[in-house]
Amino acid sequence: MHVRQTASSCVSNSVISSATGVELSDPAREQAFNEVAGIESQRLFAVALSILRDEGEAQDAVQETLVRAWRAQDSLFRADSPSRWLTRVCVNHCIGRRRHLRSRGWPPMALIEDAISRDPSPAGDHLDVDRAYRRLSLRQRAAITLNYRHGYSVEECAVFMGCRPGTVRTHLARGLATLRKELGDG
């Protein structure tokens, strides 16, 4: 998956400040936030894009994650790992956003299938994998993306997803079974 635009270029602190109504008062705190946001925003964009499958929605998800981080800076900087804190906020937002979009019938599966079938550029195998991936539940998609694509352990995925490790293992097993079935691999 190719990321054309880094998420950090989509959001600036002036946008975050005006959206939250919080003034930038401490230059050291602002610099620390800029460093964390700059380091993490491209990775957050990749996570959001893999869950939402739409660049615009992924950019919005990163922006919303950074706004929430700005509002909760104390919590962000007290966390053992700001990266994990941001990832959990981003994943939860993406799952909620995807659920919201699906409840309103967007995107229609027929539209997705038409777009995939008209696009001659990707190889046939890529189309099959993409189509199978879209058929996974949101939780299965999040678990597979975090575990296999980004290399997080089952325990870390559980923290990000707000569930128990056994639940993550179930989502992984069922998601992989669905992918195998869809792709005809057994």
Overview of the molecule:
The structure is a single chain. It is built from 10 helices and no strands. By secondary structure, the chain is mainly α. The chain has 2 domains: 1-105, no CATH class; 107-186, Arc Repressor Mutant, subunit A (Orthogonal Bundle), CATH 1.10.10.10. Helix 2 crosses helix 5 (82-103) and helix 7 (124-134) packs across helix 10. The radius of gyration is 18 Å and the shape is globular. The two termini are 26 Å apart.
What is the topology?
Elements: H1 13-20, H2 27-52, H3 55-71, H4 73-78, H5 82-103, H6 109-118, H7 124-134, H8 138-149, H9 154-161, H10 165-183
Helix pairs in contact: 1-3, 2-3, 2-5, 3-5, 5-9, 7-10, 8-9, 8-10, 9-10
